[in-house]
């Protein structure tokens, strides 16, 4: 397998990307890894020598986190992010990972990699933590702020397939984010989406309220990108606030410090369950090639897990399965 990475994307690039690749190259020795970025920047980071299965693909430009996505993609055709998407389209690599500008990655994916036939809009699908330890795949969380009912139905199908093939959920439960669980609740968009999703060959469990997601009421949660982004960022903020507050409380007095020592193993497990670094990244489902969006704050560990995720994406044939199911539905 051949996997490319945007060496210049993310808050801690390029060092975190290179460090993550060192670990991945050692773990999967039969795979090849391509770091895309300026040679003069990347080579000094491997002063101790390149792993035999890592190479650099020179790209003189890169897209910053604050650049306007579409303009940047059209103007910087030799950027590491654009070159990576082109490599996937041309079949030169099996998957591409970037922790860079999310909007630019989506734009480059659409312009240079292309969509799966039958999919109107790709969706960004990260894992949302749950108290069950399984997590919930949420799509969309911002690739498309606005959506139509048939877009949500496509998200449901793609999410179900990805959850089964990559995450290992048997007969994954698919829910639709709503303000109530009753079938007749919600906007006209949600009501129509409910009707369309119910007809799909997936395990649809109906409407799901946001307060129940942490309790694992579904394996896949479908929503428009605007609602999904608010849900995701609110949850990240709450999780960080809880952990920060616990640290303050457990260091406040000697007795609290003693209690913290007893609770430390459990707290570490809880921290892992809500840590995005354990999941690595979010697939852009609906594109014609495997593209993974790693978190902008990804460190080497997160990059390693993003590589693991990309490998499963390719090995388990997610895109052929989505294409096959779409054709089956179209044929009736």
TrEMBL record:
Pfam families named in the record: FA_synthesis (PF02504)
Keyword rRNA-binding: no
InterPro entries from the UniProt entry: FA_synthesis (IPR003664), Phospholipid_synth_PlsX-like (IPR012281)
Main subcellular location of this protein, as a coarse class: cytoplasm
GO MF term (any one): phosphate:acyl-[acyl carrier protein] acyltransferase activity
Localization per record: Cytoplasm
EC number of the protein: 2.3.1.274
A Gene Ontology term for the protein's cellular component: cytoplasm
Family: Belongs to the PlsX family.
HAMAP family, A to Z: PlsX (MF_00019)
Assembly and binders: Homodimer. Probably interacts with PlsY.
Protein name stated in the entry: Phosphate acyltransferase
Native organism taxonomy: Bacteria, Bacillati, Bacillota, Bacilli, Bacillales
């Amino acid at each position: 397998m051949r996997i490319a990475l945007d060496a210049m994307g993310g808050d801690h690039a390029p060092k975190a990307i290179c460090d993550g690749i060192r670990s991945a190259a050692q773990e999967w020795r039969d795979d090849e890894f391509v770091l895309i970025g300026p040679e003069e920047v990347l080579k000094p980071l491997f002063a101790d020598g390149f792993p035999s299965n890592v190479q650099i693909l020179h790209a003189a430009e890169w897209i910053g986190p604050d650049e306007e996505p579409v303009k940047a993609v059209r103007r910087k055709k030799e950027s590491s992010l654009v070159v990576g998407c082109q490599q996937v389209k041309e079949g030169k690599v099996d998957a591409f990972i970037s922790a860079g500008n999310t909007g630019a990655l989506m734009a480059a994916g659409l312009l240079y990699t292309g969509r799966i036939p039958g999919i109107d809009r790709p969706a960004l699908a990260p894992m949302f933590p749950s108290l069950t330890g399984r997590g919930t795949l949420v799509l969309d969380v911002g690739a498309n702020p606005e959506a139509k009912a048939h877009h949500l139905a496509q998200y449901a199908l793609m999410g179900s397939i990805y959850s089964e093939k990559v995450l290992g959920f048997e007969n994954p439960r698919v829910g639709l984010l709503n303000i109530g669980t009753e079938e007749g609740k919600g906007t006209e968009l949600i009501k129509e989406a409910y009707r369309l999703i119910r007809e799909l060959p997936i395990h649809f469990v109906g409407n799901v309220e946001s307060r129940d997601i942490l309790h694992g009421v579904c394996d896949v949660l479908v929503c428009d990108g605007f609602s999904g982004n608010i849900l995701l960022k609110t949850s990240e903020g709450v999780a960080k606030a809880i952990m920060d507050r616990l640290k303050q409380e457990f260091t406040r007095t000697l007795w609290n410090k003693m209690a913290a020592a007893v609770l430390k193993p459990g707290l570490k497990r809880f921290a892992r369950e809500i840590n995005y670094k354990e999941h690595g990244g979010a697939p852009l489902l609906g594109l014609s090639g495997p593209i993974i969006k790693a978190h902008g704050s990804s460190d080497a560990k997160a990059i390693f897990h993003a590589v693991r995720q990309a490998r499963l994406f390719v090995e388990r044939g997610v895109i052929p399965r989505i294409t096959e199911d779409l054709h089956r539905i179209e044929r009736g």
